[in-house]
Design brief:
Layout lengths: L5 H7 L5 E5 L10 E3 L2 E2 L5 E6 L3 H8 L2 E7 L7 E12 L3 H11 L5 H4 L5 E15 L1
Antiparallel strand pairs: 1-2, 1-5, 3-4, 4-7, 5-6, 6-7
């Protein structure tokens, strides 16, 4: 298993968008989506999603995924891209969503979602690439 470097971990603690791609269905092309995330205690990446979404359905079928996090425009180039697998858990999903809504400066969003059934996604990298400018 490959893990993130210390530089990657420092970079991944920032409130940046992570572009998440699950293995698509049938003949569809991969379609990355921006998501909120946080670095987990074990060095994985923690995200959440609605329990009834296509993303969760696809991950139940095939837990492989890829992620990309990049520095914003105006900063020196730095990005981390990883392939890995995702585990799904209901436990802690609501708490994670609440924390992330505060981290990403949108604290009222959880209430707006009206108690949506959420799943916590834990991404564990198996291959990591990066570029620093």
């Amino acid at each position: 298993m490959t893990s993130f470097t210390d530089d990657d971990l420092e970079f991944l603690t920032r409130p940046l968008y992570l572009f998440f791609t699950a293995v698509p269905d049938g003949d569809r092309l991969p379609a990355p989506r921006p998501v909120w995330y946080e670095l987990g205690e074990d060095g994985g990446l923690e995200m959440f999603s609605g329990a009834s979404t296509a993303r969760i359905r696809r991950l139940r079928r095939d837990p492989r995924a890829s992620v990309v996090v990049t520095a914003p425009v105006g900063e020196p180039e730095y990005w981390v891209a990883a392939e890995g697998h995702v585990t799904l858990q209901a436990d802690g999903a609501q708490e994670l969503a609440t924390r992330l809504s505060k981290r990403y400066w949108y604290p009222g969003v959880i209430e707006e979602w009206g108690g949506m059934d959420l799943i916590r996604l834990t991404f564990t990298p198996t291959r990591v690439q990066r570029a620093a400018g």
